[in-house]
């Protein structure tokens, strides 16, 4: 089912010519605790 719902937004500050990894984790509708929906940037080095 498609609803066009925005689940998360993230502001990325980036460096050109470097790899960037984003992790999308959690359960939709959960805002606290270990299962909270979020987007995290992971430093590759």
Automatic annotation (TrEMBL):
Domain of life: Bacteria
Designated name of the protein: Uncharacterized protein
Source organism of this protein record: Niastella soli
């Amino acid at each position: 089912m498609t609803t066009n719902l925005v689940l998360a937004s993230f502001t990325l500050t980036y460096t050109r010519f470097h790899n960037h990894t984003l992790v999308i984790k959690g359960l939709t509708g959960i805002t606290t605790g270990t299962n909270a929906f979020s987007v995290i940037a992971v430093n590759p080095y």
